[in-house]
Amino acid sequence: MKNEIKLIVSDIDGTILDSHHRLDPKLQKVVKLLKEQNIPLVLASARSPKGIIPLVKDLDMLEFPLVAYNGALIGYLEDEVFQVLSEQTISGHELRCILDLLKKYFPTISVNLYSGMDWLVATADQWVKSEAAITGETPYVCQLEEFVKKSPSVHKLLLIGDEAENVSCFAFLQEQSFLETSFYLSKSNYLEVTHKEVSKEQALHFLTDYYGLFLEQVMAVGDNFNDLPMLKAAGLGIAMGNAPEEVISQVDTKTLSNDHHGVSTAIEKYVLLKIEN
Question: Which one of 11, 24, 118, 223 is the catalytic residue?
């Protein structure tokens, strides 16, 4: 039936990971039950593929695609090689302009560049070390401007700094009227930069086409403002209990928090129990 859930798309940080960045221990069993019903669980995150793949392996769902960089790169791992299904990179011209502006006006902000599977930084500062501890990734240290000249295929920039400085940087970059690039704060001190066509909502549309489904057959789960378009587009949009009230108020329903098995509980309630009945 058209209104049966046949695909689940979930955010990662603050959603399937608890406040200590640990995977929901109930999720492995839930994924096994989903696979028995041929219902994919796709992880969608601002993380790079390298930051998502260990979780996919832990959950034993390598056969499912993953959505990296909020949808700028979608693919799956096959024989330890990442196979690209869809990608959208930042305009080379606008990327170079952004890097020049950051160097001139915001030299203390940590600039993290993501290209395919690679994370590149100019220096391993405190913000880089903190991000590495969360994701388990190790960045390459290099001259970012030189890298961009040789390989302009960049899927995302992540700008990290003090909250006040990042908010100021966000406002400044928006005022520059870049035509092909979008900027948004994923945290108070995390500024994400991608092509303007990139979003989890667009990734959701890609996945429904990929699986030959309707949006009404998709359940999406997330915890923050960047998840909202995806949650509102899905047939069933569920906010985590730890999500801001402004997010919860705009979606279909909410589940428990990420520290209380919110995703597993939602899947059991809205998918698995309905199958049993």
Answer: 11
